[in-house]
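Researcher: Let's do a round of design. I'm pasting the structure tokens now; please hold your answer until I've finished.
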């Protein structure tokens, strides 16, 4: 029988990263598989004592649930992942959760609650050179502002997103993202 200690030793940081990447890759191909992979990631990260990867697993699972239109469950997991990242002193992880949280909150009529975090999340992402993620957050914020009837704010968010996408292109971030598709 295999003990927890031997499993812990076999679960590498690289394996956990690969599971996160696979979960993300399957998001647009087969969200059910993405969900299963994210659940394995969460379980293995827990056994391995890797709370940062557990938080990324929650983020991956929230994304998969969003793709499956399970918005309430997805929202709860985005919040849980964000709280975990904050507890781990990982502000970039927290900021990444705001993009998905904003999107699912729109479907639930709760986007106004999340819009307050957008500026802080964008500043964190930009400060860490995550232009592509910051652009996606701004784009989602534009959609939320439009849904709320705030058209001038929506246009400003879309303009910001466009500028950030251009910056991501010049930083070489769009080419690796396109290669993953």
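Researcher: That's everything. Go ahead.
Model: Designed sequence:
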């Amino acid at each position: 029988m295999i003990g927890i200690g031997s499993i812990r030793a076999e679960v590498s940081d690289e394996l956990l990263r690969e599971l996160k990447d696979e979960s993300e890759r399957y998001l647009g191909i087969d969200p059910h598989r993405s969900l299963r992979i994210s659940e394995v990631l969460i379980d293995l990260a827990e056994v391995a004592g890797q709370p940062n990867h557990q938080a990324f697993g929650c983020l991956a699972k929230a994304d998969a649930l969003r793709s499956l239109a399970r918005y309430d469950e997805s929202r709860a997991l985005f919040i849980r992942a964000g709280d975990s990242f904050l507890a781990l002193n990982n502000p970039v992880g927290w900021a990444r959760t705001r993009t998905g949280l904003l999107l699912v909150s729109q479907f639930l009529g709760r986007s106004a609650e999340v819009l307050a975090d957008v500026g802080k999340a964008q500043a964190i992402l930009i400060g860490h050179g995550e232009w592509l993620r910051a652009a996606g957050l701004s784009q989602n914020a534009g959609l939320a502002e439009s849904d709320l009837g705030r058209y001038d704010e929506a246009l400003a968010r879309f303009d910001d997103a466009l500028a950030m996408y251009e910056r991501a292109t010049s930083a070489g971030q769009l080419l690796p993202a396109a290669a993953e598709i």
